[in-house]
Every structure is written in C-alpha cells, then in structure tokens.
C-alpha cells in the first residue's frame, strides 16, 4: 500500500510536540533514537551540519529524518558528505511505502547538491533495518563504527 502525498516539512514550534510523539514498533527502538533525542544530538553536534525534517503524509506527521548534510571533507568523525543519521516512520504508518518515498526524496535532494553517495549505518540484531536498506540498494562498506555496520549507496547511474 503506497501512501499518497508524502513530503517533508520543517519542524516548528507548532508541530514539534506531534513529531516528538512519533514512535516506532516495539523492538525497533533499539535501532533508532527518539525524535527528541535526535534533536538534542543535532544541537550538540553543529559541526555535523544536521539537516532534519518531519515526514508528513497529507497533513499528518508520520515520521522523522535527519542527515549529516554536506559535511566538509576532513571533519572529525564524519563518514562521507551525506550520512542518513536518523530515520523513523511511526509504527502506525509502517509498511505503506512511506520510508521508500522519503528516501527517494532525500536522494533527489542530495543529487541536486552534487552528491554522489549516501552513507548510513545500523546496529545488527533481531528486527534490524538492513533488509529495507538492502532492497534500496545500499551495500556494506566493510567498516564498523561503534558496533554499527556502515552502508553506502552510490547515487550515480541510478
């Protein structure tokens, strides 16, 4: 089932509480931090150029995405210029094609900026997000960072 009108919106005082209330399914919370924690992390790491948006389906907030956006080469701790740092779809809206739609929009934005690859990572375990990323075309780099497997998606030629 594909969800129509999936789009990204800035997080404002008007929608912050609703976006922070989004929750993943039980067991998935081991793999992704809450929106509130993610926003705190973004504030604590301005050198990562955090870029985050609420995911909407129609007028309903249904998810959250945060990237390290166009990070300058040589930035300590950075993995690539574009890194999908946090990504969650609320438990009530999963398995509707929303995650795929959002990631496609993110990739289009990165390409428009001249980006040629997108990195992300995941912690292995029961219920891990690897199958989603694998279906999208991400491949393991062979690197592990703080227990998380690093993945890369080449954006050229897709």
From TrEMBL:
Gene Ontology MF terms in the entry: acyltransferase activity, transferring groups other than amino-acyl groups
UniProt cross-references to InterPro entries, sorted A to Z: Acyl_CoA_acyltransferase, GNAT_dom, Sper_AcTfrase_N
Residue ranges of every copy of the N-acetyltransferase domain listed in the record: 6-156
Gene coding for it: bltD
Gene source species: Amycolatopsis taiwanensis
Domain of life assignment: Bacteria
Entries under Gene3D superfamilies matching the protein: 3.40.630.30, The crystal structure of the spermine/spermidine acetyltransferase from enterococcus faecali (1.10.287.900)
The protein's name in its UniProt record: Spermine/spermidine acetyltransferase
């Amino acid at each position: 089932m594909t969800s129509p009108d999936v789009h990204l919106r800035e997080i404002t005082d008007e929608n912050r509480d609703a976006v922070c209330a989004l929750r993943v399914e039980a067991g998935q919370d081991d793999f992704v931090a809450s929106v509130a924690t993610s926003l705190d992390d973004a504030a604590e790491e301005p050198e990562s150029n955090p870029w985050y948006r609420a995911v909407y389906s129609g007028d309903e907030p249904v998810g959250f995405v945060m990237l390290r956006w166009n990070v300058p080469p040589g930035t300590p701790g950075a993995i690539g210029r574009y890194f999908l740092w946090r990504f969650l779809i609320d438990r009530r809206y999963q398995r509707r094609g929303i995650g795929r739609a959002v990631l496609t929009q993110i990739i289009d934005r990165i390409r428009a900026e001249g980006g040629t690859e997108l990195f992300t990572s995941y912690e292995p375990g029961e219920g891990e997000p690897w199958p989603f990323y694998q279906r999208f075309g991400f491949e393991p780099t062979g690197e592990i960072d703080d227990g998380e497997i690093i993945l890369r998606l080449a954006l050229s030629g897709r």
